[in-house]
């Protein structure tokens, strides 16, 4: 028999308020977890992920993305839920949150839960309530679906550890990429308190993996890893600064993902962009492209920026920009180039590079043969040789840029002039 909790009549009204308050948090992703259902429990988590995004097969993945409360003691200048804002406030109890998750799952509305919260009293109180939600879902309702939980910086290590044994993914939002930015817009937040739980989660993931080598049935600690979110455009932090922070997080704490969120002006303030400022969506897109190069293509931040450059060229993707700045490394012969060289060629990605390596074992590839590998030949032809022949117009900066860069009719204007 299912547990029955007393629910207030305004439950769904409060849910709407808290779901709307959670929409600015973008750091949710596919789970990377494959946990099957069983006769004793309900639900499952698949490796293609549980989130409000698009799966690799094109499916739209859904989850209940909600705050436990939007009552906050902090007054972060950029946040819609800051204590001085006159917004509708609401809270859910752990029992209500667990029950809503189960009822929505049974109705096939969602496939999992993304749970965050404002800080109503203090970090420990909020983290304890979030732990109670996980405990109810996993131990009382036997819910096996995907759960992503936000860690509250400053909460006790024990609470973080307990949540990590029940959640699939955890994230600690940096929000702003530098101490100066935090001091300017969120002076109540301590940078060290943000980094400490990241470090703790990283070490416990490693320790848990080592323990599971000897105890195969031991419970997993955050099997889908950890992530974070950085707001861009609210402060003058440059692309180089932002990506340098991401590079350090990937290196030190092996984060699965850093999410970049274009700042949406919701508040007025002397240190904030104007309310009429458009979110820097193109800049966000370029940061994601550069981040991909850092994580999968072996690039470093120092390679993506020249000595005196602080921001990326929004006219072109960062891989093309790098290639144009290093024309002395091109063209490369596709029949002899290594994998690491091939994936640095604009228009050639991981899959097409592997296909090239496979195809050329059988026969040398010419330009027509390249079409079978999935390369974007419109780009790649300017940087490669096929059986010694160059198919581009001319290996020269302006020529290639004019051929590949489509300039928008209206140029994007920087919020900082």
From TrEMBL:
Arranged from A to Z, the UniProt key words for this protein are: Iron, Iron-sulfur, Metal-binding, S-adenosyl-L-methionine
MF terms in GO:
catalytic activity; iron-sulfur cluster binding; metal ion binding
Q: Please, which domain of life does this record's source organism belong to?
A: Bacteria
Q: Which InterPro entries match?
A: Aldolase_TIM (IPR013785), DNA_rSAM_put (IPR023874), Endo/Exo/Phosphatase_dom_1 (IPR051675), rSAM (IPR007197), rSAM_sf (IPR058240), RuvA_2-like (IPR010994)
Q: What is this protein called?
A: DNA modification/repair radical SAM protein
Q: What is the lineage of its organism?
A: Bacteria, Bacillati, Bacillota, Clostridia, Eubacteriales
